[in-house]
Amino acid sequence: MKNYLQGAAFAALAYAVAQPAWAGDAPAPVEVTPPNPALTIGRHQADDQKTIVVAQATPASAPTTVAQAATSAPEEVLVTAFKRETLLQETPIAIAVVNTEELEKRHVQSLLDLAGGAIPSLRIATFEARQSALTVGIRGIVPFDANQTARDQGVGIYLDGVYLGRQQGLDTALLDVERIEVLRGPQGTLFGRNTEGGAVSIITKAPSGVFGGRVTGGIGNFGSYSSGLHLDLPTTANIAVKIDGVIEHQNATVSNPLAGQTGWDYFNRYGGRIAARWTPAANFTADIAVDSGVDYNTPFYSQLVNYNPNKKTVGVYDPVTLRLVAPGSPAGAPTCSTCIAPLSPLVQVHADRQNVAEIGVPQQQSLDKTDGAMALLKYELLPDLELRSITAWRGVSTDQWDNSGGAHRTIFAPNANFSRYSLSMLQQHQFSQEFQAIGSFPQVDYVFGLYYFNEHASEKAATPSSNKWNATGTGYTINSEIVFPPITSANQGWDPSSWFVQRASRAKAESYSAFGSLTWTPAFLEMAHLTAGGRYTQDKRDGVLFTVVNLPTNFPFKFDNSRFDPMVTLAYDATPDINLYATYATGFRAGGANDRSQTFTAFGPEEVKSYEIGAKTDLFDRRVRLNVAGYIMDRTGTQTDFDNVDTNPTSPTFNLHTEETRNAPGTSKIRGAEAELTVRVTDGLTVGAAYSYTDVKVPATPNPFLGNVLFPVFVVFTPPNAASAFLDYELPLGNGGMSARFHLDANYADATYSFQAEPVKTDSSFIVNGRVALSEIPVGSFGQTLTLSVWVRNLADETHIYRRSAANANVLGDYANFNPPRTFGIEGSVRF
User: Fold this and answer.
1) CA angle at residue 602 from 596 to 603, to 5 degrees?
2) HEC assignment per residue over 84-124
3) Angle (nearest 5°) at CA 723 between 719 and 729
4) What is the pLDDT of residue 646?
5) Of 70, 570, 707, 731, which is least surrounded by CB within 10 A?
6) Does pLDDT of 615 surpass 80?
């Protein structure tokens, strides 16, 4: 599939330049009024019948946005936070929108590329060091470990309105995204479970019915290359079809000395999507889409950043007994319990990012596959009432191969195994069905709906040690991949037939909900808008942990909970360009069980109550846009993880990662403020900035590994202060639409915690990205245009630790993962 896509992309590139567009010259934009009342908020009908300009679907059309007619005004973007299209500035929710153009400027190829901080309140990081699963957080709602069968994230990820149930597979390639909406704050009413921190809604471009498209291709450092084909076919028999295919590749940024094995921070992604829109009648539309994605990747490298930070006595190994003893001890001396093991001569401490590992280890490529099919049906039953049905099937499979630590996370001992190879095979399938009724009657807009979600997930995991030291640590060998019985915890391979299965589980979840929302704009006070809504949810989950340390077990769990999540918003149009709002809302993350515990212990849901005020303003003849929000969130039942790894090589559970989850007592308090500023300095120059302040305090929670002693809890990947800024400049070149475009953005974040139970912080970060493009160069006789660009991510090659652990400080030292190094490349794109 990958080679086919790449060949098709380059063939289409040549064809696009040489051939005419079927639809002829691009028609000019047309003036229209806002969509019908079934699709927009009622106040637009009452007092805001603004003329807007919408670009028709043409071969050279820009990203789908809605802009005010005045050339100096900022773009007005349509969003769907209320399940209907509303103008961003008039939607009383804190929303950030990243459209196609912004994704291109920042060279965003997958969700992980947003980890740099383009949206300060949105925090994205790898789970552990793995690109195969992403941790997504908003406003301090960040899960420590949702990378399992019976746990959920606190931020919902949606693809064209379909909830994605697992964090595995989230880093697959993005397929022709129209925009990404980041809804901040609880979205429990209209979006449902697992949106207590907010929702990330990815919206792809729909078929236009007009022949056209674009072909892209590019190369960069670290052997990177990318290509894409996005093709719209003309409407035939009332059916419009769109085809998308992409390839994204990058070689490892940290090399592996072991021949034939992949290094770290490698990826090779490809995927495709076919979408069709059938419009047999003016009041009925059926959108059908199928997609498939493949992501080969390796984790980021986990390296030793210090040794013996607690200044313990460095011991030596007795040559006869091989016990760790104090220096100068006589032969046969007892083990020194206060000593730290010496480093192997081959192991080095690196306080900066490595580019070559000193120890070669087996490192196979993890493989994530995602597949989905959906049908969105829209029927305009009445001029002011539209019925919708969203039916979707999705699946994820992950083969995880994570040998990121090498000798940097395991102590040296003579003739001992080392290098923990974390293996996992996960399968997940889900089905969802949603019905919506969206409409209006005088002074009232409404949304009502029913939702059903069903999920089945299973996983098995193993942690063999791939390497073995010699007696002095001056050399090592690679253990066998295949082990013949008997297989034990100390004698296991990483071939699936030789796994010593540390744990295996399966779980299923069902969720039923009914929701509704009404917005009332009183005739006597058309500047005020009162929205009230709620969602009733019945959540069920059960499963069984059927293998622990390679032995059959039967540890079942069951979770059953129902709840109601209300929302009330009062919005007020102080002027046509100043909109104020205040909101009370609740949300929750479902309960479940931790499949890393030895008994599949169940835990309850966590709930958040949020109070928010905000203002959305366009000032100085709409050249300045300033949006601000402040919020207070009180969370109860905070799901808190405590983990432990058995590091005793003689133990039958050696290398077993055990994790228990507890609901923290009391109330977690989250306080914050956000601001976004955009200034159109001239028609060609735009600058902007965004800022997020987040303060989170979680009550101390009993640690089950330390006798249930109350322990402090630290919120991961949540900087107290985060900010971003950008500059865009466009210089027209001639009268044909060609221009030079310059983009620069800078992103800062304070140091954060990366483990809930460790008071160890990462580094602060400051990442600068840039792009220079020569845009819309005419290359054909029928409207074809070429855009050439040079892009760079992490322009200054800034180095910071984004994940750090001191769990091994008493036996070895801290290990950490660093951000990616500077990457750059050139890219060409032809529109036809």
Assistant:
1) 105
2) CCEEHHHCCCCEEEEEHHHHHHCCCCCHHHHHHCCCCCEEE
3) 155
4) 64
5) 707
6) yes
Angle at 124 between CA 583 and CA 567, to 5 degrees: 15
Q: Identify whether 486 is preceded by a cis peptide bond (ω within 30 of 0).
A: yes
**Angle (nearest 5°) at CA 493 between 490 and 499:** 90
pLDDT reported for residue 648? 64
Could you give the CA distance from residue 589 to residue 446 in angstroms, rounded to a whole number? 26
Structure confidence by residue, pLDDT tens digits, 7-30: 444 444 444 444 433 333 333 333
pLDDT in tens, 760-786: 999 999 999 999 999 999 998 888 999
DSSP-derived secondary structure for 577-629: TEEEEEEEEEEEE--EE-TTSSS--EE--EEEEEEEEEEEEEETTTTEEEEEE
Structure tokens at 6: 């790449």
Measured CA to CA, the distance from residue 766 to residue 666 in angstroms comes to 36
| Cβ neighbours around 307 below 10 Å, total | 17
Candidates 816, 819, 823; CA nearest to 800 is 819
* CA–CA distance, 700 with 749 (Å, rounded to integer): 26
| DSSP result, 8-24 | HHHHHHHHHHHS--TT-
Under 8 Å CB-to-CB from 684, ≥6 apart: which residues? 729, 730, 731, 732
Which tens digit of pLDDT belongs to each residue from 101-111?
999 999 999 99
Structure tokens at 462: 């193993």
Phi/psi at 116 (5° precision): -65, -15
What is the tens place of the pLDDT at every residue in 616-668?
Answer: 999 999 999 999 999 999 999 999 888 776 666 665 555 567 788 889 899 99
Q: Count Cβ atoms within 10 A of the Cβ of residue 477 and give its class: 0-12 exposed, 13-18 middle, 19 or more buried.
A: exposed
